[in-house]
Amino acid sequence: MSETEFRHGKKRFYDTTKFPRGFAKSGNFTLSEEEVLTLFGDTMLALETGELTPTNAEEKHFLKVLSHPHKAKSKLERVWLKYIQLARGRRRFHTLNGCKRGEVPREEYESELVLED
Question: What pTM does this model have?
Answer without folding.
Answer: 0.70
